[in-house]
Amino acid sequence: PEEEKTRARVTSASIKRHRNRLKLSQAELGTLLDVSTNTIVRWEAGTSKPRVQHRAALIKMRDLGRRDVTKMLED
Predict the structure, then answer these.
(1) Segments of the chain scoring below 50 in pLDDT
(2) 40 with 30: CB under 8 angstroms?
(3) Is 64 left (phi over 0), alpha (psi -120 to 50) or beta?
(4) What is the CATH number of the domain that holds 54?
(5) How many Cβ atoms are within 10 Å of 7's Cβ, its own excluded?
């Protein structure tokens, strides 16, 4: 299972889908990943791709719920 997570695909559509599932704005997702809102916009538009560390963080976020990310934003 852990190996599958490192090989999971992160697409522009999956980034947007998971962000919407967590009810996050692009700015909030950027805050969680320590990137700019414009970076999130480019990832979702498919004009740039997340670096390895950001892909790993996005994959981990798939297992989180809204309460988890709300708490992370408050910290």
Answers:
(1) 3-4
(2) yes
(3) beta
(4) 1.10.260.40
(5) 7
